[in-house]
Amino acid sequence: MSATLKWMWVLAVALATGCGKGATPLPTRLVPTRMPTIAPSPTSTEPGSADSGWVVAARGIEVRNLAVAGVVPDTAAPIYAVRLDPALVRLRVRYAPDTPQLLRTWVAAHHPLVAINGGFFTADNQATALIVADGEAHGASYAGFGGMLAASADGRVWIQALREEPYDPAVRLDQAIQSFPMLVYPGGVVAEISDNGQRARRTAVAMDRAGRLLIIVCPTSAFSLQALATWLASSDLEIDRALNFDGGSSSGLFVDVGDVRWQIDSFTTLPSVLLIEPRTS
């Protein structure tokens, strides 16, 4: 098939399955993570219990875990959220298609404060879109769809909807991950997503109206993409814009800040991850 048709097929499969390499459809029932989620006091709330509220884990880093009712009948879906002040932390993208690793292995090697999985990738672990790691660009940008989480060398962090603001190679990026779809467009507008209602584990990044970066993970197969988009826009997280990262077996979240230890591992190896590190300058 042509290169264009091949990429369209790859993207369609990735979106439908909510995961990268070796993807298979996930069941619609709630599926727990394979590793324990540990959140010592004051954030020791177990999945499905009451909202912990925002808890300061360190300067510039807040955490919150809560349960969302009504997504799956008779069950509350757990959500784990991290809120970051971009002026006080640094984003770091790691990309190693030749040596993909489970999220916990990435964490053990680099010791970040926070870590999540990156965007979609092919069966041979190549990113399906642009990735910028420490100023070095890999892959080609999505055109007309999807979004990009990006950071400049001076520490500015943003999410842009590529449909409305296409990637400009003249803009120097320090770190970036492109993924799809946009869940919430700038101004808090809920995206209309044709996702057939399939539920999967989910990872998303967002910017709130105060300019803070949010990392949001649901470690059970509770949300369809449309349901997640609708919940994000209607929640009290004050979301201005949000972007879906790879989900399903790729989803994961590690937090090691202050007294907080969250460990939600990916089910598959990952060629790319987003790490949050202390800002040193």
TrEMBL record:
Residue ranges annotated for the Phosphodiester glycosidase domain, each copy included: 114-264
Signal recorded as keyword: yes
Keyword match Signal: yes
Tree of life domain: Bacteria
Keywords for this protein: Signal
Residues spanning the signal sequence: 1-22
Pfam families from the UniProt entry: NAGPA (PF09992)
Protein name, UniProt field: Phosphodiester glycosidase domain-containing protein
Organism: Roseiflexus castenholzii (strain DSM 13941 / HLO8)
